[in-house]
Amino acid sequence: MGNKTSCISVRLSESDHSKIKTTAKTLQVRHSDIMRYAIKTTLTRLSAFHNPELTGPALLPTIIEHCNELNRHFDLDADKLDNIINAEVVTPGRQVARSDIELLALCGMPTEMIQQRFIQATGIKLKANEVYQFMKKYLAEKYQAA
User: Fold this and answer.
1) Which of 11, 37, 107, 143 could form a disulfide with 57 if both were Cys (CB 3.0 to 4.6 A apart)?
2) CA angle 61–46–29, rounded 5-degree value
């Protein structure tokens, strides 16, 4: 990858644009510096998605870590998540189970919904503050050997 750059156009709400201008002014940098920073930090956080070697269970840590934001911004339902996670899996037995993908699709929903789904899927009753921590642990243990 070289140093060649591209000019892009982005539609932003007035509120977001105002926040970018205010942040740039406070940090004494250009608006474009704020935009590049936001893009680079987001791409770093989501680096698993631009690594073609990572498929199936290898994507779970990133998805779990950012599931609320991903679901809120990209409306990821179970079908979309299944395609993202399992579409490129070529090794038999390395796919993430549909029931686990459906749990991930609940991210961002009220905690009570996720608690009920965990009870149905695992028989385990969780406290509201344990839901995401347990989901991470449950999926990591289930797919660690995969």
Assistant:
1) 143
2) 140
Tokens in use for 4?
């060649």
> Could you give the CA distance from residue 24 to residue 20 in angstroms, rounded to a whole number?
6
Given a contact cutoff of 8 angstroms between Cβ atoms, the answer to whether 85 and 77 are in contact is: no
Note the helical H segments in the chain: 14-27, 31-45, 60-74, 78-86, 98-105, 111-122, 131-143
Of 26, 23, 93, 28, residue with least CA distance to 55: 93
Which structure tokens are listed for 47?
């680096």
Query: What pLDDT, in 10s, does the model give residues 85-140?
Result: 999 998 878 899 998 998 888 887 888 888 888 788 778 888 878 887 888 888 88
Q: Which two tokens stand for residue 146?
A: 């995969």
8 Å CB contact between 48 and 61:
yes
SS3 state at 57: helix
Q: What is the pLDDT of residues 4-32, one digit of tens each?
A: 888 889 999 999 999 999 999 999 999 99
